[in-house]
Amino acid sequence: MRAPVPARTTSLRPISLAVVLSARLMVRYADKYDPDLASAFEKLEQGLPPALAEHVERTLDVLSKAPRDEGFSANVRLLTKAWAERRVVTIDYEPAHYDAGASPRTATVRPYLLEPSLQTHALYLIGYDEGRKAIRTFKVERIRAAVLTPRTFESPSGEITSFGPPAGMPMRSRESPPSMWPAPQRTTRTRPAPSRAAEARSTRGRAAPRARSGGGASR
């Protein structure tokens, strides 16, 4: 008599959980449907165990209901290509609505990083603005047009991260998205508690209370 064939199981690799968690984080961040991002996760889910693949599929269904912005998606593709190839871009950029004194302008930028913000649910381009000679952040959804130039650039010395530029590089923090460039921490100075010797010296010169005549204790 033949032994029963055990049920087929799929090994759970660490990368499987990474794909699922990445999909969950992605759908929390994204406020627009990105067809390229959705296509990437569709390919990744093919190697997952069935239960996890279904979870990623449901996550992509949620993403598919987000609004579509073809112009935004085209700009993200172009900026990603410029970032990967270290190519300079020119962008037509609209200022923020709260910056009443600013006007639209064309900027020439060396893309250093594309960074999502958890607080604003927006994507930002961080790069060196050649016109203003400083690192700036640009909200991608306010980029009306982007052109890839043939010019290339060298990566700056030091690492560009979401926590700030390399030491010595100028940066205008006013244009930074929330929680991207942390504000400098204020240090509060506290006066040290006086030592016992200092207390003794301060009380040494004080006059002792005078007793009343008649031997009564002072009140």
Search tags:
219 residues, alpha+beta, SH3 type barrels, 2 domains, five-stranded antiparallel sheet, elongated
Please write out the topology.
Blueprint: H1 14-29, H2 35-45, H3 50-64, H4 70-85, E1 87-93, E2 105-117, E3 122-129, E4 134-139, E5 143-152, H5 196-204
Antiparallel strand pairs: 1-2, 1-5, 2-3, 3-4
Could you explain the architecture of this structure?
- The protein is of the alpha+beta class.
- It has two domains: 14-64; 70-175, SH3 type barrels.
- The protein is 31% helix and 20% strand.
- It has five helices and five strands, in the order H-H-H-H-E-E-E-E-E-H.
- It has a five-stranded antiparallel β-sheet, covered by helices on one side.
- Strand 3 (122-129) and strand 4 form a beta hairpin.
- It is elongated, with a radius of gyration of 31 Å.
- The N and C termini lie far apart (107 Å).
- 17% of the residues are buried.
- The model is unreliable at 1-10, 163-171, 173-190 and 215-219 (pLDDT under 50).
The portion of residues assigned to helices is: 25-40%
Distance between the termini: 107 Å
CATH topology of the largest domain: SH3 type barrels
Main sheet properties: 5 strands, antiparallel
Query: What's the architecture of the largest domain in CATH terms?
Result: Roll
Order of helices and strands: HHHHEEEEEH
Shape verdict: elongated
Strand order across the biggest sheet? 4-3-2-1-5
Q: Compute the gyration radius: what is it?
A: 31 Å
> How many beta-strand elements?
5
Structural class: alpha+beta
Outline the low-pLDDT stretches: 1-10, 163-171, 173-190, 215-219
